[in-house]
Write a structure and sequence with these properties.
4 helices; elongated
Length: 189
């Protein structure tokens, strides 16, 4: 069976370029023009130029620090590759360190589940905005016998966020359940 790789969506370079032109290049042009024409207050204008140049540094560092998440499924098992996104780090939803990849064998997997949770954020005017976030949960066999038949507790599931993937969470779940069914049928025959 072939290996299936599901990755996050690619960033829109066009959108970032338009934002940089509107919020950086245009103000920078007028600030440099003002710097040339001004006779006083050049230190303040230089400060504004430095502040204006901060936006491209943030956007470029977003591309440098961005590591895309991916989920790989093969005949051996599943590999969850966690990523890092600069925007998530700035919103305190992520961290600079990337967790290690999780490789899970088919013999350890009991099933899959989509976990959805909603965040309610207040908006201006007293209302709320509801944002739904999805995670793929890989359910594991929950107990393992150790020496002397004592049960060792171990992790019951692994999960990875699906918010920025190309496919819809339900499509991803269907792909994995179908693949698991094919693996089980091949092992039986």
């Amino acid at each position: 069976m072939e290996t299936i790789i599901i990755t996050e969506k690619k960033k829109s370079i066009v959108t970032d370029s338009i934002i940089l032109i509107i919020f950086c290049a245009v103000p920078l042009f007028f600030l440099i023009k003002w710097l040339i024409l001004a006779e006083e207050g050049r230190i303040f204008i230089i400060f504004l130029i430095i502040v204006t140049l901060f936006l491209p540094v943030v956007v470029i560092s977003g591309y440098i620090w961005d590591v895309k998440q991916k989920i790989m499924i093969s005949k051996d098992g599943i590999k969850l590759c966690y990523g890092r996104n600069f925007v998530d780090i700035m919103h305190f939803e992520g961290s600079f360190s990337i967790p290690p990849d999780n490789e899970i064998l088919w013999t350890e997997i009991t099933g899959f589940q989509i976990d959805a949770y909603e965040l309610r954020e207040p908006t201006e005017g007293g209302g709320y905005t509801t944002l739904t976030k999805y995670s793929l949960m890989v359910k594991m066999k929950n107990k393992e016998s150790g020496p002397f038949d004592f049960e060792r507790s171990r992790r019951n599931y692994y999960s990875i966020g699906l918010g920025k993937f190309e496919e819809h969470p339900n499509t991803i779940l269907k792909i994995y359940e179908d693949y698991q069914r094919k693996i089980e049928n091949n092992e039986l025959h």
